[in-house]
UniProtKB/TrEMBL annotation:
Keywords: Cell membrane, Membrane, Transmembrane, Transmembrane helix. InterPro entries: DUF3817_TM. This is DUF3817 domain-containing protein. It comes from Micromonospora sonneratiae. Its main location: membrane.
Length: 113
């Protein structure tokens, strides 16, 4: 699960930064100064990166055995500026807590052999 968590963390930050650039820079340029070049350039990139984010969130959620509702909330976090950064921190906490629980469960199970 460690590699899935790392992939998720990286793409969460990338999607968050690109979304902020799109909303903070691109949207004002397009709607205030009638310069759509940033939106036209960054928008499709964000869409592609968001699809990768969805796959990474699903993969992590599947490996961590999250309920579907949690997975959906994490996936939606990539659509709101700044929320992906907060969600990334929360997800890391969930994943590490799950790893600790699994490690404790393995310690309690008798070794077969």
């Amino acid at each position: 699960m460690g590699a899935a968590l790392t992939r998720y963390r990286i793409i969460a930050y990338v999607v968050g930064v690109v979304l902020i650039m799109l909303v903070v820079v691109g949207m004002p340029l397009k709607y205030i100064w009638d310069e759509p070049i940033v939106v036209e350039t960054i928008g499709p990139g964000h869409g592609f990166l968001y699809m990768i984010y969805l796959v990474a969130a699903f993969d992590l959620g599947r490996r961590a055995h999250w309920p579907l509702s949690r997975m959906i909330l994490v996936m939606l976090a990539g659509t709101v500026p700044f929320v992906s950064f907060y969600a990334e921190r929360v997800v890391v906490g969930w994943a590490r807590a799950g790893q600790r629980e699994q490690g404790q469960k393995q310690e309690r199970e008798p070794v077969k052999g």
